[in-house]
């Protein structure tokens, strides 16, 4: 007869950050990004941090796409004033450059958090921080909602390809509205269904209950969290000194 084996959570390999470190650094990044508008080097460092973290999490495609946009933004910054562009093109390049330097770092870091953090890890981290469940439950549902929505979107795309409803096909030129109809309507129905199912699954697992939930996840600050803390302090000091 086999003896009962105590479950032990698997140890994390590679670069692993505590969910509390990720959330705190995202707020720090969102704050610092608006104080470096005139310093290209500081701005570049803040933009490179999400790229490095995405690469460490093996998210190569979004990292390379974001890195390519980042290189284009740097070239646009360096060539600004040296080359004369038409008014509309210059305005478009300026808008894209500001979006990449101002908003994309926070968006990409949020993407990294969603892809690298499991819902149970996030819930345990927020409980340790004494965050109200009114905030924990919706955000934990979002952690499962976005990947599930991506799977539904890919399934809809496969079905459209099987029916030859895509850009450039005879059906598209005959009725271009079909792409919008076949893509948006099933996706909206899936969004409503997925939201209801995930909310029911979260409540069935004890979220929102009156008693305190137990959790098998063991969270602790490690060497990488200390490294992020050191990087944060250095960035703050660098920005303060640079603005003097």
TrEMBL record:
Q: Topology with regard to the membrane? A: Multi-pass membrane protein
Q: Which Pfam families does the UniProt entry name for this protein?
A: CbiQ
Keyword annotations? Cell membrane, Membrane, Transmembrane, Transmembrane helix
List the transmembrane segments. 23-56, 63-81, 87-114, 221-241
Q: What domain of life?
A: Bacteria
**Entry's localization field:** Membrane
**Keyword presence, Ribosomal protein:** no
Can you supply one Gene Ontology CC term for this chain's record? plasma membrane
Keyword Cell membrane, does the record have it?
A: yes
Q: Any idea what this protein is called?
A: Cobalt transport protein
């Amino acid at each position: 007869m086999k003896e009962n084996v105590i479950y032990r959570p698997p140890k994390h390999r590679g670069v692993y950050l505590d969910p509390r470190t990720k959330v705190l650094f995202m707020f720090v990044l969102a704050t610092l990004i608006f104080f470096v508008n005139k310093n290209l080097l500081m701005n570049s460092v803040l933009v490179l941090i999400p790229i490095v973290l995405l690469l460490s999490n093996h998210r190569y495609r979004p990292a390379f796409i974001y890195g390519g946009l980042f290189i284009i933004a740097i070239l646009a910054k360096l060539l600004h004033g040296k080359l004369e562009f038409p008014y509309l093109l210059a305005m478009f390049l300026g808008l894209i450059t500001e979006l990449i330097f101002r908003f994309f770092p926070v968006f990409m870091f949020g993407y990294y958090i969603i892809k690298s953090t499991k819902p149970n890890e996030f819930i345990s981290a927020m409980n340790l921080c004494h965050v109200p469940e009114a905030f924990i439950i919706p955000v934990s549902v979002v952690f499962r909602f976005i990947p599930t929505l991506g799977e539904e979107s890919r399934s809809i795309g496969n079905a459209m390809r099987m029916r030859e409803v895509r850009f450039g096909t005879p059906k598209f030129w005959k009725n271009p509205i079909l792409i919008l109809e076949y893509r948006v309507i099933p996706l909206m129905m899936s969004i409503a269904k997925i939201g209801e199912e995930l909310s029911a699954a979260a409540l069935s697992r004890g979220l929102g209950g009156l008693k305190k939930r137990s959790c098998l996840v063991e969270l602790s600050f490690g060497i990488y969290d200390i490294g992020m803390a050191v990087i944060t302090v250095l960035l703050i000091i660098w920005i303060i000194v640079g603005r003097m």
